[in-house]
Amino acid sequence: MQITSGLPEGFNAGAYDMIVVGAGYAGAVCARRLAETIGYRVAVLERRSHIAGNAYDCTDEAGILIHEYGPHIYHTFNERVHNFLSRFTKWTDYQHKVLANINGTLMPVPFNHASLKLAFGDERGEELYQKLVETFGKDVKVPIMELRKKNDPDLAEVADYVYENVFLHYTMKQWGQTPDQIDPSITGRVPVFVGDDDRYFPQAPFQGMPQEGYTALFEHMLDHDLIDVFCDVDARDLFEIDETTVKIDGKVYGGEIVYTGPLDELFNLDLGALPYRTLDMKFETLDMDQFQPVGTVNYTTSEDYTRITEFKNMTGQILPGKTTIMKEYSKAYTPGSGETPYYAILEPENRELYERYLERVQNLTNFHPVGRLAEYRYYDMDAVTNSALDLSDEIIACHA
Asked: Which residues form the UDP-galactopyranose mutase C-terminal domain (predicted)?
């Protein structure tokens, strides 16, 4: 593998069997699988100055490993995804825990046995917990919609508390919505965990942090003799698209193209911009060993920011006397502003606009949109990896 900034003089796209646009999960997985499985020579074009996409991590001025684009917490139920990624990293035993700051009291989320006693007092909280156990059993996640369906005043009391104090105000900040704009189907999925497990992903069999960090994972994944990575290269400056072909430097490109960027930007937003939410991230280095007891504290009833992340709590890094935290402020994404589009707003009219863009690439020869942006979906890291593995399977099968 070679990683260079910019394209070399005389770059010949035709020398490559596949062009991958984007060096995040979707692009890196496809590049590695096609290179090692069927011997494709692959050029990865990355618009940013680094690999690893939004999972990129680096050391800040205080020497603390931070996630520059927000916290990435690895967890999955998918054994194939876990086995594939585990080829490129060893994992720590980190188990993610989240607390909600509810009117100054820190309570585990998802709401659990301990949360109930903190919210309602020991005696009443235990009564409510036992009612949950009698109704649903132990060690299960129960959406608050299911609590309400029972027409039981005790269960409704729990549902109302969780809705108001854990979900409502946090969601208003996260998505910029008023209560009447929040989809009831999303509201109903907010879970209560009937049990004592205070992990955020209590049932995920595979979870942790890459021992050397995410960027190192990507370095290992892309480390193959048939893969070249070119950073600081915007594929939109190279591509000429007509109804059935993609030209690079005026020549029809005959290989495979894996595209992981936004489809609307590929066409200069000519049908309109796909809306996203983005984040302002404010990093602060503090002169203390530890700021908060867990990696993430959600501010569900107060503050303008949605949550605070403390990276040392997640990575296990030991650096006495210093810690770096990050506050997240959610806002609408402005195309062309240099902001990062994080969360697709999956309203029906937005999905319809995406489908119109998708129609324009479906007749392009060997052009494959994949990943969070190219598919206009909300994906966790494991889901992006799985989508890229599936696409790789398809391309490999066609080659056979």
From this structure: 166-378
Tokens 């489908």 correspond to what residue? 355
- Please write the tens of the pLDDT for every residue from 154-202: 999 999 999 999 998 998 999 888 767 776 656 666 899 999 999 999 8
Write down all domains in the chain, each with its CATH number in brackets: 2-51+222-269+344-399 (3.40.50.720), 54-97+199-211+276-332 (no CATH), 109-197 (no CATH)
Q: Which helix (H) or strand (E) holds 250?
A: none
The DSSP 8-state label assigned to residue 277 in this structure reads: E
Q: Which of 224, 233, 262, 239 is nearest to 34 (CA)?
A: 224
Ranges of residues in the chain with a pLDDT under 50 are none
pLDDT per residue over 103-123, tens digit each? 999 999 999 999 999 999 999
Q: Is 33 exposed, middle or buried, given 0-12, 13-18 or 19+ CB atoms closer than 10 A? A: buried
Query: What's the whole-model pTM score?
Result: 0.95
Contacts of 118 (CB under 8 A, 6+ apart): 105, 107, 125
